[in-house]
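**User:** I keep going back and forth on a fold encoding question. It is easy to fool oneself when nobody else works the same problem. Could you pick a protein and write out its sequence and tokenised fold? Could you put it straight underneath, so I can go through it closely?

**Assistant:**
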Amino acid sequence: MKLSRLRVPLGYAAFVLVVFLARPRMESLAAGMALALLGEGIRIWASGHIEKTERLATGGPYAYTRNPLYVGSALLALGVAVASASAFVMLAVAAYFAALYPAVIREESAFLAGRFPDAYAAWARDVPAFVPRLRPAGPRASTFDWGRVRTNREWRTAAALPVVAAVLAARVVW
């Protein structure tokens, strides 16, 4: 089984663990949610550029990193970990990303290299796989479209963020 198929179900399981282990304070909640909002902003920006399996997205955030959705997810998860104010949650989030994301990024890279061989090779030569560049590079051929954000169902992650914040806020008073 591909690890990419396990990423979302394991993410839900990780969230249950977060809720159980969280010991948030209002300060940690505010700092963590600010980081999570930054991550979601990056995810929305990336979702507005991507047309899965149809075209290679190289504009917007894809000119800084080949995996801005994963960068956004990492920031979002780090934000939730900070909000939880728990070393155990921080370790669980780090383990989740370390165990899954390198393999998922390799799987996706192999798929895109096979689907768009010439375009992918040129883009991958100039744009790093994960850690963003400071300045954009590569062909920058895609443009942002809110319709793509909707098509890519990024609204689900955006809608989940206030729920996560509310659950952690409830834990502040528990």
Summary: DSSP finds seven helices and no strands in the chain. The two ends are 39 Å apart (CA to CA).
